[in-house]
Amino acid sequence: MITTKLHTQDAQAFLPLVTTTSDVEKAYQELISKTGKGNDFLGWIDLPEEITPSLFAELNHTAKELAAQSEVIVVVGIGGSYLGARAVIEALQHPFKALLPHEKTPLILFAGNSMGEDYHKALMDVLDIKDYAVIVISKSGTTTEPAIAFRILKEHCEKKYGKTSAQKRIVAITDEKKGALKKLATEENYQTFIIPDDVGGRYSVLTPVGLLPIACAGFNIEKLVNGAKKMRDNLIQHQAFDKNIAMQYALLRYLLYREGKKLELVVAYEPQLFFFIEWFKQLFGESDGKEGKGIFPAGAIFSTDLHSLGQYIQEGERNMFETVLSVEKADCHLPIPFDNNDLDGLNYLQQKTIHEINLTAEEGTRLAHISGNVPNIRIAIPNISEETLGELIYFFEFSCALGGYMLNVNPFDQPGVEAYKTNMFRLLGR
Ligand code: PA5
């Protein structure tokens, strides 16, 4: 079995903090017995078990049909209706896919996750000349950003392909019964997938919200869910703190927070994990940050950001800890050539792989940051694949819920998100 390992390299620094595990054990029992706050939003816990072969088949079939008629698939959505799919697709796909000839799967582009007018106009310029399909995703069906983008896309699609063909190029993912998108999808006879009632947006990547776009991009959604299932089995089976990595991670975060470490910098040394960190930020930020409490989730890609944020991390305000997503193996090998003149002085590295040097940078940085009083948690995966991403997704969802319960907040609501909307609607005169 592929395992996700939690390393606390500077165990000495942590040990005095862990005087009792009772807080996290209580949170764990609340979560698995489904008696804690927000327990009507715990559908994500059993999702990996519950996705039926017929749903997989329908998702894969729809993905194939959309892909067959499209060079581009536009995924419309924001927050939890966007970040999970993008996190997985960008982690797995060739970073220069758009420039490769003979690509078999469509390019996935995203819309409705901002109100950038220039961005959306540029997207329409592409859609003028490329064949495309649209997946529109909104659980509430009423979120402004994706609704605006979809109105524009729908009109464009109908003008380009005609009403009847456009209807076959649009798939909606929304609530089973309510919301404007549900109404529109029914009126327009769009193929529709349902977001379960008891799964909130940021916990929805393993529903059609994430699975359909990921399948459209050509990735194996069964493997992704299987990874999540392995992690689920592991976390449900191991109820003791010393065997349960989600309990360990959640407790360490909580103890560090209580010690004044109010910011968690999530770091990856692989640039393709950028959007995975964006997904993490939403999951933890919206789940923890309420009632005047919560760790602020931030993200960085190293070694890139060591050349921008590195100084601050090493010597700035001492209020952060670091969580490193470490990838043990690269998929490819790019040799460093031997150079007879060695003018750049790099021949000493010639026997090493770039990934080995990257891991050495990780180790050197860990030692430096620990000595600068930035505690370091290392979560290692063997490689980046559907399975390991599935494991990580479930691991973080579970840990996040535990952390929310330890803070005594409801990790499944987001009342604060309404404040900007209320002002915006008032200012717009709605
Ligand atoms: O986690 C959440 O619930 C939110 O971030 C939502 O995903 C986000 O606001 C989008 O909502 P909706 O899917 O209703 O358009």
Give an overview of the whole structure.
By secondary structure, the protein is α/β, with parallel strands linked by helices. Helices cover 48% and strands 13% of the residues. It contains 17 helices and ten strands. The chain has helices at 11-14, 22-32, 43-50, 53-68, 83-92, 117-129, 144-161, 163-168, 180-188, 208-216, 221-237, 245-258, 274-288, 310-315, 354-371, 386-406, 418-428; strands spanning 5-7, 72-76, 107-111, 132-138, 170-174, 191-194, 263-268, 296-301, 320-327, 376-381. Strands 1-10-9-7-8 form a five-stranded mixed sheet, sandwiched between helices. Strand 2 (72-76), helix 5 (83-92) and strand 3 (107-111) form a beta-alpha-beta unit. Helix 5 runs parallel beside helix 10 and helix 13 packs parallel to helix 16 (386-406). The termini are far apart. The model has no long low-confidence stretch (mean pLDDT 94). 5-phosphoarabinonic acid (PA5) binds at residues 78-81, 138-140, 143, 146, 200-202, 286, 414.
